[in-house]
Amino acid sequence: MYKDTTIAELDQVIANSVKAFHQYKNYSLKQRADFMRAIAAEIEALGDELIETAMAETNLPQARLQGERARTMFQLTSYGAAAEAGNWLEASIDTALAERTPPKPDVRKMLVPLGPVVVFGASNFPFAYSTAGGDTACAFAAGCPVIVKAHPAHLKTSTLMASAIEKAAEKCSMPKGIFAHVYGAGFEVGEYLAKHDAIKAIGFTGSFGGGKALFDWANQRKNPIPVFAEMGSVNPVYLLPEKLATETESLAKQLAGSVTLGVGQFCTNPGLIVAVADDALTTFKSLLKQEIEILTPATMLHQGIADNYSTKLATALNQNGVEVVAQSTTEATKAQGKISIATVSGSTFLNNPVLHQEVFGPYSLIIECADEAELLAVTKAMEGQLTATLMATPGDINAHKELLSEVQEICGRLIFNNVPTGVEVALAMHHGGPFPASTDSRFTSVGADGIKRFARPLSFQNWDNEFLPDELKNENPLNIWRTVDNELTKEKI
Amino acid sequence: MYKDTTIAELDQVIANSVKAFHQYKNYSLKQRADFMRAIAAEIEALGDELIETAMAETNLPQARLQGERARTMFQLTSYGAAAEAGNWLEASIDTALAERTPPKPDVRKMLVPLGPVVVFGASNFPFAYSTAGGDTACAFAAGCPVIVKAHPAHLKTSTLMASAIEKAAEKCSMPKGIFAHVYGAGFEVGEYLAKHDAIKAIGFTGSFGGGKALFDWANQRKNPIPVFAEMGSVNPVYLLPEKLATETESLAKQLAGSVTLGVGQFCTNPGLIVAVADDALTTFKSLLKQEIEILTPATMLHQGIADNYSTKLATALNQNGVEVVAQSTTEATKAQGKISIATVSGSTFLNNPVLHQEVFGPYSLIIECADEAELLAVTKAMEGQLTATLMATPGDINAHKELLSEVQEICGRLIFNNVPTGVEVALAMHHGGPFPASTDSRFTSVGADGIKRFARPLSFQNWDNEFLPDELKNENPLNIWRTVDNELTKEKI
After folding, report:
1. Among B335, B360, B133, B203, which Cα is nearest to B268's?
2. Of A3, B36, B166, B442, which one has the greatest count of Cβ atoms within 10 A?
């Protein structure tokens, strides 16, 4: 039904995108925001067909997809509003000092869009991190045209979303080439796009293998380009002793819920639970066992994901020293994920890299450390993570200052007495983390700061006011915040 | 005199740097700024010895080095002040909404330091872009310890500067390991540092070969790290027709001065002059010839640079279709750079990649385009540049809107009727550009925004106020600008 886009077609798509870029980059911030609001309206107008199509393609339940649709629309409208407010432009102006020796020139700087962006969506968020998702919204906000490669696991959903974007583009008189939707069953289409000289940045959400391949291709180009790949992580949750002793049951309930939310198919799923072995941890395990056993397995996104979970789970459980703590007592079908919790000692974890790897699905591994020193050693040995969570009392925090310092070095978001699942769409959110959680720990893929991924600074020196972009003109016609001679202000010059 | 640092010594240096990082990252912004001010004071206290040592090692004249010393001190004090003001932290806070379904968590974000940084200085700026130069200043401001590999071309100068940093570190009670100075005649020491897992970022100023090797090593690591390599460029200067016709003589004088400033040893040296061939260009060439012929050659930084210039100049002048326009009539010695201007047609330039390469020294190539279409084609064919300059009247700008659009895509700083040499140290300065001008066009190596190169965002979710960094506490004790619920403010919460 959906034929692979040919190389000749891709060349045409890219040529259109380049042409569109030279027009769209000069569109006002308001025009960009209007376009994004129009896309949100067109998504809403898709109505039940969108939800039903996605349900059929992803096995995700209706309520979840309705929520994700709302989130997707909110991303478009709120990033549009942020684009329009202009803070992300980091506009700064240093005025001239003609009398200085040598004379100080007038220099003004703002972020400008990078150029055509290619987006690869995620299978686990068919709306919010796919065709019209966060990466696409950020690129449009920044002033970049977008080429989306449809995710093979939800082609119909992706095509519907593409039609919403195309309708909005037409209604808003966007240049031809502002958006394109291409297909490729294998990796060849993605590789061609990633290696093409006219493509200036890549957004990706998915597996380590996919993200790393894009990162390597992009860096090996004659002109390397940035790749923003969010590749998931195991998101350690620390149960510190006082908290664990005083709220054992509540922690077991919270974690049972978080590990199994969305059949464990979240990049912030808590794949590791870390604690010092003590009586409270023993109680916690038996309470968690009770919670897990009564849960019912659910169907995963597609058979490939279910097979992958099954294989990785078997590998993890077969490692020396790993013991099963609990599994759902209801048998899982081939398409479902068997809910599983296992345990291993800190020393075994330290010596087995396999146990550090993500098992994408409803699984978590409890690391039982011999003492506080081993807890710290386990932390230092961890790879980069999207999130780390401390379940702790104030007393625990005061007693674990070194852990608090070390854990900040391995994550992008540090959570206190909340579960890591649930990523708020807000400016202060950082969704990214040290490699391999993401390929560039300096940028987020959630929240309006994600717009900055697709922009770079450009300085204008000694320009007549009339030729400057509106954002940098003396009279500040857009009424945006700017740093003028080192002071933040909305004043004119 | 300066033995290569051994691998065992490097391991110790790196271990000290990691330890220092865990302490220094918690030092207040004021402590960092005080340290940087103390370094500036110690540099001043080095007095004439510093200037005389650098004169002997680099052949740069006294006045230039005195100016560069002042610039270096200004970088330290002004980046310190910027660090203290805290705008660079991009602090943002989204407050909780407990009544929402699901409840909205409190999320707060700020930039945190990356970790130990390695700096490789430039031969052409022995103070401002070397041991205590811009990269080191930015890293200290961000909260990172620094390991400098001494530049082999000015080892004594580098060692003096290192002593100034070490004295300041002692006076300010900085942690042991906050700074280290290592030596390596070959590339092995640099390679070892760049590939070491504990090193988290690299600053480099120098050749394409050196910067690209670091970039590749860093990206091929198990955990890739950012490399900020500023690798120079040819900095095209466009002479648009009305401007060229009306200010022919003044343009010839300005460009003769800019091409030969500092024996052409600036990364912003105008290596290409681009114009449509007409009578005014013919006049310009003869006026430029008069200016160039009377100039006296000067000694380059060291024999290696002079030899390299001589070789690359010969290669450039030997290309088909390249004709010499002017050379200084005074014979250059082996250590000096022969001032040279050549010319070539636009079509020849388009077909010969050799002519696109930088010839580091007092040389510039005039590209004579057949018409406006060729001018545009030449622009589209250019590599990424630190700067591009339009010498133009308002009428020229209005007649060249497509050129204005295209030229923005190839540069980091766009200059109007100024020469590109002279890089103002100011917040609005962008010194960087699309690859290969720099490895990361999104970050500057001049100006306080350079601090952001060595930092990444970290979000804190649901933390008690007492455990948050001061920058994010409710009461805003540092009185910094923060974005609270999407509004910039210094207010408390």
Report:
1. B360
2. B36
